[in-house]
Amino acid sequence: MTLQTILGAGGAIGTELARELKSYTNQIRLVSRNPQKVNDTDQLFPADLTDAQQVDKAIEGSSIVYLVVGLEYKVDVWREKWPALMSNVIKACEKHNSRLVFFDNIYMYDREFLYDMTEETPVRPTSKKGEVRAQIAGMLLDEVKAGRLNALIARSADFMGTKNSVPYEMVYKNLKSGKSAYWFANSNIVHSFTAVADAAKGTEMLGNTLTAFNQAWHLPTSSNQLTGTQWVELFAKELNVKAKVSVMPGWMLGILGFFMPKMKEFKEMQYQYDRPYVFNSSKFEKYFNYKPATPEEAVKAVVRAAETAAV
C-alpha cells in the first residue's frame, strides 16, 4: 500500500477525507499543527505548513498529497501565507515525485457566471480573496503545464457540514436555539451546497484515479436547485420547529463587522448570495457514475452529526 498524506488534517474536509482514504490504504499521514487520529493506523505528523523544511519532511515518501488547508479567514493572512504555502507544497511534491490534489473553492470565478458553474467557467476574480485563490491555482496549473508536476484541482461549492459552514452556523444553530435562521442578501435565490461527505469522497476518488490528474474537477453536488428559504425549511422540518428566516442585507454585514471580524471579512463575498449560485458537477458524476446526496440527505447528515456530537 502507498502512503497518502493530508496537509491540513483536522478540518471539516481533512477529517472526512481521512475516513474515506481508509478504503484505499492503511498508510495515511495526517499533517497539521496538532493532528489527531481519525483511523487507528493513522500516522501523526505535527508541522507548521508555512515552514518549507517542515513541509518537505511531511511530504517525503508520499505517493499522493492532499492539500486541504483552511487558513484563517482574513485576506491579509491569505495574501501572506497562501502563495508561500502553495510554493512549498509544489516544490516538495516535485522533489519527492508525489501527486498533488488541491482542494479549492470557486472564489476566482467571474461573478457574472455563477448561475451555472462548470470547470470551464471564466476565471476573473472580483474580490480580494478571489484574487488570492486565482493566484495559487495558477501557480499549480503553471507547473502542470510545464510538465514538472502531476496535480489536479478539486473544487467545491460552499459546503454543508458541522464545521465552518453557513447552513450550520447560521441556520441549524439558530433554529435549534429557537431563533430565526439567518441568510445573506436574498433568501429567494437558489444556492448550491456541497455535502462534506460528497466533497471528501469525491476528493479521495480523484486522488486515486490516475486519469483524473492534470485538470480541474467540480466535486459531486446535488443539481436540485433550492433557495435559501427552502434550505431553512428543510432544516426546520428535520428539527421539527417553525421555519423562520431573517435576511441580512449588505449594509448590516458592514455594521456587524465592527463586532464580528468574520462578518467584515465575508462582506466582499456577499455577491454569492445576491444572484443564482448553481454548481454543476456533471463532469464528475458522469465519469465516476456517482450520485451526490440530495438536499434532504445532506441536511439530515448535518443534523445527525450535530446531535451526535452534542451527546
Structure description:
This protein has two domains: 4-158 and 194-218, Rossmann fold, CATH 3.40.50.720; 160-192 and 224-277 and 294-310, Alpha-Beta Complex (UDP-galactose 4-epimerase, domain 1), CATH 3.90.25. The protein is built from eleven helices and eleven strands. It has helices spanning 12-21, 52-59, 75-96, 128-145, 166-176, 196-207, 228-239, 250-256, 261-266, 282-288, 295-310, and strands at residues 4-7, 28-32, 43-46, 64-67, 99-104, 151-155, 159-160, 181-184, 194-195, 216-218, 245-248. A seven-stranded parallel β-sheet has the order 3-2-1-4-5-6-10, sandwiched between helices. Strands 7-9 form a two-stranded parallel sheet. Strands 8-11 form a two-stranded parallel ribbon. Helix 2 (52-59) packs across helix 3 (75-96), helix 3 packs parallel to helix 4 and helix 7 packs across helix 11 (295-310). The radius of gyration is 19 Å and the shape is globular. The mean pLDDT is 92. This is NAD-dependent dehydratase.
Strand order of the biggest β-sheet: 3-2-1-4-5-6-10
How many helices in DSSP terms?
11
The first-to-last residue Cα distance is: 36 Å
Low-confidence stretches: none
**CATH fold category name of the largest domain:** Rossmann fold
CATH C-level class of the largest domain is Alpha Beta
Radius of gyration: 19 Å
Query: Averaged pLDDT, please?
Result: 92
Strand content: 5-15%
CATH architecture of the largest domain: 3-Layer(aba) Sandwich
Number of domains: 2
Q: Would you count the extended β strands for me?
A: 11
Query: Structural class, from secondary structure content?
Result: alpha/beta
* N-to-C order of helices and strands: EHEEHEHEHEEHEEHEHEHHHH
Largest sheet data = 7 strands, parallel
User: Can you identify the CATH superfamily of the largest domain?
Assistant: NAD(P)-binding Rossmann-like Domain
3D shape = globular
Helix fraction by DSSP (H/I, runs of at least 4):
40-55%
Organism: Solitalea longa
Protein name: NAD-dependent dehydratase
Domain NAD(P)-binding: 8-110
InterPro entries: Lipid_A_modif_metabolic_enz, NAD(P)-bd_dom, NAD(P)-bd_dom_sf
